[in-house]
Amino acid sequence: MTVGIYYATTTGKTEDVADRLHNFISSAESPKDVSDVDDLSEFEGLDGIICGIPTWNTGADEERSGTAWDSILEDIGELSLSGKKVAIFGLGDSSTYTENYCDAMEELHSYFQKAGAEMVGYVDKSSYTFEESKSIIGESFCGLPLDEDSESDLTDSRLEGWASQLKGEIPALA
Question: The whole model's pTM is what?
Answer without folding.
Answer: 0.95
